[in-house]
TrEMBL record:
PANTHER family: BLR2425 PROTEIN, FLAVIN REDUCTASE LIKE DOMAIN-CONTAINING PROTEIN. This is Flavin reductase family protein. One of its GO terms (molecular function) is FMN binding. The lineage of its organism: Bacteria, Pseudomonadati, Pseudomonadota, Alphaproteobacteria, Rhodobacterales. It comes from the Bacteria.
Amino acid sequence: MFYRPEDGHGLPHNPFNAIVTPRPIGWISTRGADGGENLAPYSFFNAVAYEPPQVMFASTSAKEDRGDTKDSVANIRETGVFCVNVVEYAARDAMNETSGPWPAEEDEFTRAGIARAECAEIACSRVAEAPANLECRMTQIVKLEGAHNFVVFGEVVGVHLREDCLVEGIFDVTRFNPLSRMGYRDYTVVREVFSLKRPGEK
């Protein structure tokens, strides 16, 4: 089949998210200017550069108590910092709980029973037991087409790695099994990896 998004797809559910899969999940923690904390998962997330290391995530909807966006972007506008927490399979239920449309004053760490720790380089909490945390300083927020579409870019200024995930100097994802987003209500998990050499490599 072929369809133009502007004309609609004619299917029971939008297939777009199921086409671009799997997508890593950025579990974004932020702290507002008032000290209130937020934790929310974003599946439009990825690393975008090595030197300096940089990441991005996109927020695509809004809440009535936050105007044109959601809590994460609103807090980052105020403070200029955020933390990306890697989601392991064991944390799937807690992550899902933090995805709800809770009021701005709701603390998702508390709501989902998630232990927190203070970041080292920025004024923000992180998921204490996450396999890895990326402390970020926002570099820019880009408005995309659409009423509530914003992309947040950040430079990674601090990295936490859980010790049990380091094996002979390698960050081993099979030690914690990263959770990834599929389409619809579906997720997948990384349990197996393989390597390929680039052309010309020995």
